[in-house]
UniProtKB/TrEMBL annotation:
Stretch forming the signal peptide: 1-21
Top-level lineage group: Eukaryota
Family of the protein in this entry: Belongs to the CREC family.
Protein's recorded name: Calumenin isoform X2
Species of the source: Eublepharis macularius
Gene from which the chain derives: CALU
SMART domains: EFh
Residue stretches making up the EF-hand domain: 70-105, 106-141, 153-188, 190-225, 267-302
Compartment(s) of residence: Endoplasmic reticulum membrane; Golgi apparatus; Melanosome; Sarcoplasmic reticulum lumen
Annotated keywords: Calcium, Endoplasmic reticulum, Glycoprotein, Golgi apparatus, Membrane, Metal-binding, Repeat, Sarcoplasmic reticulum, Secreted, Signal
Length: 317
């Protein structure tokens, strides 16, 4: 099955899922950053939370099998990657960016899987023509397909998003730009397109705004005369009290943005600040490789730290 057919099948299956889903099931359009770790953040007990936050939970487990020397060596190589401007020190901002990337590994894995299918000429870039031809090639000659879906309209929407992701306007995406295209909610400069697409999905009367019934209708389908679930009543109250800030009965672009892209507490920023504070021996607000490696057990695990924790647990018994 080629990419175009597979993507069309996915679209159809998602449409069917929405159409057939139980009326009491809630659709959630709000984008929240996931927690950095499901471990308790208590450095007095262990650094497990910090390991998960710094490396991502899956990668953190691999370090637990290493000796302290191996952990330090691999950590040193990671530091070189974190120091993006190559000035020899790691700033809080660089550390925050690294943590966010470690936590979004599933995003980058998804891009890697799709990259090879779309980069047809293997030049390390993906042009709009490449993406369009692979995704919509079989439908471009049939603007009125039998299944009733308007693929040309879908293609125009994709093109608009591709152009926004393409920062230099050459209609050729680098891997980072292609990542922004596939996962726009992860990039600040793409947030407007996330809001625009969401509003287009929900705004059924085409007035460019979202009223209460459109808001509720997007997440709940009435099943005959069945009484609305409590969560629907709560959402109606949420719309009136919090979503519709100017009380005009509708959500505009800014109000929709506040809803689907809330300004959550930035866990990555807090963790970066914590790691710098704990490791910054000369208190200059930046970390050298030596400062990080000296405090390696805070950043990564190893057999030694695991053994130490095992001894503590044994003593507790």
């Amino acid at each position: 099955m080629n990419v175009a057919i597979r993507q069309a099948a996915l679209f159809l299956s998602l449409w069917a899922l929405c159409a057939l889903s139980k009326p009491t099931e809630k659709k959630d359009r709000v984008h929240h950053d996931p927690q950095l770790s499901d471990k308790v953040h208590d450095d007095a007990q262990n650094f497990d939370y910090d390991h998960d936050a710094f490396l991502g939970a899956d990668e953190a487990k691999t370090f637990d099998q290493l000796t302290p020397e191996e952990s330090k060596e691999r950590l040193g190589m990671i530091v070189d990657k974190i120091d993006t401007d190559k000035d020899g020190v790691v700033t809080e901002g660089e550390l925050k960016a690294w943590i966010k990337k470690a936590q979004k590994k599933y995003v980058y894995d998804n891009v890697e899987r799709q990259w090879q299918e779309f980069d047809m000429n293997q030049d390390g870039l993906i042009s709009w023509d490449e993406y369009r031809n692979v995704t919509y090639g079989t439908y471009l000659d049939d603007p009125d397909p039998d299944d009733g879906f308007n693929y040309k309209q879908m293609m125009m929407r994709d093109e608009r998003r591709f152009k926004m992701a393409d920062k230099d306007g050459d209609l050729i995406a680098t891997k980072e730009e292609f990542t922004a295209f596939l996962h726009p909610e992860e990039y600040d400069y793409m947030k407007d397109i996330v809001v625009q697409e969401t509003m287009e999905d929900i705004d059924k009367n085409g007035d460019g705004l979202i009223d209460l019934e459109e808001y509720i209708g997007d997440m709940y389908s009435h099943d005959g005369d069945a009484e609305e679930p409590e969560w629907v009543k709560t959402e109606r109250e949420q719309f009136v009290e919090f979503r519709d800030k100017n009380r005009d009965g509708k959500m505009d672009k800014e109000e929709t943005k506040d809803w689907i892209l809330p300004s959550d507490y930035d866990h990555a920023e807090a963790e970066a600040r914590h790691l710098v504070y704990e490791s910054d021996q000369n208190k200059d607000g930046k970390l050298t490789k030596e400062e990080i490696v000296d405090k390696y057990d805070l950043f990564v695990g190893s057999q030694a730290t695991d053994f130490g924790e095992a001894l503590v647990r044994h003593d507790e018994f």
